[in-house]
Amino acid sequence: GEPSGPCVKTTIPGPKSLQMIADLDKIQFAGSIFYFTDIKNSLGNYIVDADGNSILDLLTQISSLPLGYNHPDLLKVLQDPDNHIAFINRPALAIFPTQGWPEKLTSSLLSVAPKGHTQVTTMACGACSNENAFKSTFMWYRNKQRGGAPITDEEHSSCLVNKGPGSTPFTIMSFKGSFHGQTLACLTTTHSRSVFKLDFPALDWPIASFPRYKYPLEDHIKENEAEDRRCLAEVEEQFEIYNKAGKFVAGVVVEPIQAEGGDVHASPEFFRELQRITKKNGAALILDEVQTGGGATGKYWCHEHFNLPDPVDIVTFSKKMLTGGFYSLPEFRPQQGLKIFNTWMGDPTKVLLLEKVLQVVKRDNLLKMVELSGKKLMDGLKDLSRRFPQHMQNVRGIGTFCAFDSGSQQKRDETFFRLQQHGIQPGPCGEQTIRLRPSLVFQPKHADIFLDILEKVLKEI
Amino acid sequence: GEPSGPCVKTTIPGPKSLQMIADLDKIQFAGSIFYFTDIKNSLGNYIVDADGNSILDLLTQISSLPLGYNHPDLLKVLQDPDNHIAFINRPALAIFPTQGWPEKLTSSLLSVAPKGHTQVTTMACGACSNENAFKSTFMWYRNKQRGGAPITDEEHSSCLVNKGPGSTPFTIMSFKGSFHGQTLACLTTTHSRSVFKLDFPALDWPIASFPRYKYPLEDHIKENEAEDRRCLAEVEEQFEIYNKAGKFVAGVVVEPIQAEGGDVHASPEFFRELQRITKKNGAALILDEVQTGGGATGKYWCHEHFNLPDPVDIVTFSKKMLTGGFYSLPEFRPQQGLKIFNTWMGDPTKVLLLEKVLQVVKRDNLLKMVELSGKKLMDGLKDLSRRFPQHMQNVRGIGTFCAFDSGSQQKRDETFFRLQQHGIQPGPCGEQTIRLRPSLVFQPKHADIFLDILEKVLKEI
Ligand code: FES
Predict the structure, then answer these.
(1) Distance between CA atoms of B194 and B287, rounded to whole angstroms?
(2) pLDDT < 70 regions, chain B
(3) Any idea where the Ig-like domain is (chains A, B) (predicted)?
(4) CATH code for position B246
(5) Out of B134, B179, B270, B401, which one is annotated catalytic?
(6) In this structure, are B243 and B306 located in the same domain?
(7) Which residues contact residue A252 at a Cβ distance below 8 angstroms, ignoring those fewer than 6 apart?
């Protein structure tokens, strides 16, 4: 079974990890590695590193493990010989899908589709999910612009050499602080940290401010409402500037919570108003739920907390969903093959595993568990923040998707380092934030263990 | 065992496939599907479709199956319980790699590295492999430009809003007719067919002509040499134009054979001269071996046929390698973490399977087999082309990576359709080309079966 708590025997990373990092560094740059892992001995919420340290994992492979390590039900999927053939015969899904594929999509991805969504396209990671959401948006916008007119020869020939009218001047609006992936178009919409963007070319696409609230929220209602209005005015302004310049804004991409940029939350009202403004401008609203989706907020999709009046146009996912992809409204279907296309179009084995994950989530009521554990976490974090205001501020979260600030980058790094040495693996994000990204099997008792150690660390600093 | 030949019972696609296509079409656009497959009953070179037709597969999931269907050695990888944990615990490889990972890279990808390459980075598909090859090139070029000067605050802050100097005006040169993937930057370097590009924005990056030879080559030596010179002059010209305009050409991306654009071959001399010109201009040469790599040309990397004087700067791969990724010279290593980065950075289970594929290729001498089967194929195709010159022209190929033209798109489509109805699955490419992309277990006897049926089809037309 799972250990009853973290167990640390060496500094982290320990000598074995350091040796392995040196080995890997001969083959590729290894400077971002925290430590090597002993996956075989990892279980549930605990990751074991190469030096035998057992660490309570609140980062879970950058928020991508839905059921923790070595979940017995997932193991069963691999033990079933009928499933083995799927793993050794990867199909080109958009040309030669395997029989049973529509049923698999229905029993997995469509069974948790956001409200109003009947269409889903699989991809292999968050970046190609967003890139293809952008492409779907551009096609849709251009078709509206064409108004049924046929595609001209000039469009066909000009796009081959990257020129108009076939290549369009369309843009996607994004928000300061956002993160949408690290291919070049995704990077154009990413603004969280310069390390991701420096030295790379970027497209001239509009950018608006994302709200930055004062906490605790209940004490700053007026100011935060004004902050929403300021940002939404920028959105309107960017629409006007870019549309007037002929760089038509076909879509707006936004995270329900800016996860990489420091767990920056915005109000349901902000998102409702954003949807209204986007619609008014004839553009599509793309919700990037790559990190927020998959259950950690207590619902499958974070934006379900926002009570939006209309379904979102496109919702992208990856990470905890195991497969990348996106839901989109029917009007975003391509009118032709090969436009939303690549060799594999995802990987059916990831959907096979996802199907089992969703069964477990339902059977074990894991979204309810997220709610309970999340409440425990939030209550504990708020309490610690009141007691150690010099080390912890701006506690925020939905479900177990929680974060707090440390006051400075140096203090965050110290908190992070000390937690690690005590056998807690948190995640850093933004300038001075600690984010928590446990998997869906994180229980209230794990929250207690974490909170105890965090208190100890805060006393040490 | 494998069937002794194709066996067709229905039209292709048959009624069951048509029903499944209709089912899938309720969930997503299904217009590019050829037929649904019965993977369980597929074996070796034969794919079985949902209607029970057994088809000799010369397309192999868009050239992505190295060992055909249900290879017994790959099945063993799945049957080994020690391997199961890798499939259910996907790591974030650039932060928490699993112990043994450097050794796995060494025994798999590095064991077949192109000459001079010691560095490899895994990715998850061809598109992110190319996107990250471009990014590596931009960083390298910018660092040369900086000449050791520190990165300024202005660079950091400007890139966050997609502006210079932090965002660079750098470009990648590509060739008419090329295909490098379908994310937006990859699409900017793709020029094979308008369907891939229409309606999407593109960057202003330089494009040069790729040689278009007259066949048979031995009868057109002078003309083809002149064609090389014409294209290389365009490369020089594009360097000059873009560099002078400050849109510095940091790299040139090229396929060893333009595979999607119609199997367009260029001479070893062309590639050697291209390498010289690229180097002279301080740019990087990126060889996109996503489709040509993995053994189908009789060598692991098609560019090994070119006798280049220096190692290529970056070689990208995916498809038959099962994992995406790229080899790069040490000077292309990032100087900082998170720049060549994403959540998963590939998938160790694909490398586990690749390791076995490479063992089988070596044990069974499959590259030698490719050579033999390729010779048989080429001889047969050339013979048929002489006998049916109105239906088949410009036979070309290296190893089993073969193609021929049909004279017109309509004739190609007819040849393609009739081959399919006779139980042969070829691939279309370019305007009027049939491409052959069998896996590495394709034997001379399979070439015979294909050539017999092709002859029958050519007589029917
Ligand atoms: S871009 Fe998503 S897997 Fe390659």
Answers:
(1) 23
(2) none
(3) 91-196
(4) 3.40.640.10
(5) B179
(6) yes
(7) A172, A173, A174, A235, A274, A278, A283, A284, A285, A286
Q: How many helices (H) and strands (E) would you count in chain B? A: 15, 16
Residue A77 covered by a domain = no
Q: How many inter-chain contacts (A to B, CB under 8 Å) are there?
A: 381
Question: What is the C-alpha separation between B420 and B454, in angstroms, rounded?
Answer: 10
Is B288 an active-site residue? yes
Q: Could you tell me if residue B331 is inside a domain?
A: yes
DSSP per residue, B5-36: S-B--S-SS-HHHHHHHHHHHTTS--TT----
- What does DSSP say about strands B284-288 and B249-254: parallel, antiparallel, or unpaired? parallel
pLDDT for res B400: 98
Query: Is there a single domain that holds both residue A195 and residue A332?
Result: yes
* Cis peptide leading into residue B165 (ω within 30°): yes
Task: Over range A241-247, report the average pLDDT.
Answer: 98
The whole-number pLDDT of residue A14 equals 98
What distance in Å separates the CA atoms of residue A112 and residue A121, rounded to the nearest whole number? Answer: 14
Measured in whole angstroms, how far is the alpha carbon of residue B374 from the centre of its chain?
A: 18
SS3 B316: strand
Indicate yes or no: CB of A32 within 8 angstroms of CB of B92. no
Cα–Cα distance measured from residue A95 to residue A90, given in angstroms and rounded to the nearest whole number: 12
Residues 6+ apart with CB under 8 A from B405: B262, B392, B393, B394, B412, B432, B433, B434
Residues 6 or more apart whose CB falls under 8 angstroms from that of B265 comprise B213, B257, B258, B396, B398
Specify the amino acid at residue A109: L
The whole-number pLDDT of residue B356 equals: 98
- H/E stretch holding A29 reads none
Which residue, chain included where needed, has tokens 């929220």?
A217
Check if A424 has its Cβ closer than 6 Å to any atom of ligand 1: no
Left, alpha or beta for A152 (phi > 0: left; psi -120 to 50: alpha)? beta
Chain B residue at shortest CA distance from A29:
B333
pLDDT reported for residue B63: 98
Stretch A94-110: mean pLDDT? 98
Cα gap A18→B37, rounded to integer Å: 47
User: A193: helix, coil or strand?
Assistant: coil
pLDDT, position A31: 96
Q: B350 and B369 share a domain? A: no
Number of domains chain A contains = 3
Do A250 and A380 reside in the same domain of the chain? no
Q: Classify B48 as helix, strand or coil.
A: strand
**Secondary structure class of B433 (helix, strand, coil):** strand
Q: Tell me the pTM.
A: 0.98
The range of the structural domain enclosing residue B410 comes to 365-461
Left, alpha or beta for A199 (phi > 0: left; psi -120 to 50: alpha)?
A: left
Please work out whether the CB of residue A447 comes within 6 Å of at least one atom of ligand 1.
Answer: no
Question: What's the average model confidence in pLDDT over A256-276?
Answer: 97
Looking at the fold, whether A332 and A349 belong to one and the same domain comes out as yes
What pLDDT sits at residue B174?
A: 99
User: For chain A, what is the mean pLDDT?
Assistant: 98
Is residue B345 lining ligand 1, measured as CB closer than 6 Å? no
CA B358, CA B369: separation in Å to the nearest integer?
14
CB contact under 8 A, B336 and A155: no
Active site residue B319: yes
Q: State the DSSP string of B346-366.
A: S-HHHHHHHHHHHHHHHHTTH
Distance CA A243, CA A236 (A): 11
pLDDT of residue A113: 98
Angle CA B373–B375–B379, to nearest 5 = 120
B168 flagged as catalytic? no
Report the alpha-carbon distance of residue B33 to residue B16 in Å, rounded. Answer: 13
Give the model confidence (pLDDT) of B319-357 as tens digits: 999 999 999 999 999 999 999 999 999 999 999 999 999
Report the residue of B179, B183, B189, B328 to disrupt the A interface, i.e. the one with the largest count of A CBs within 10 Å: B183
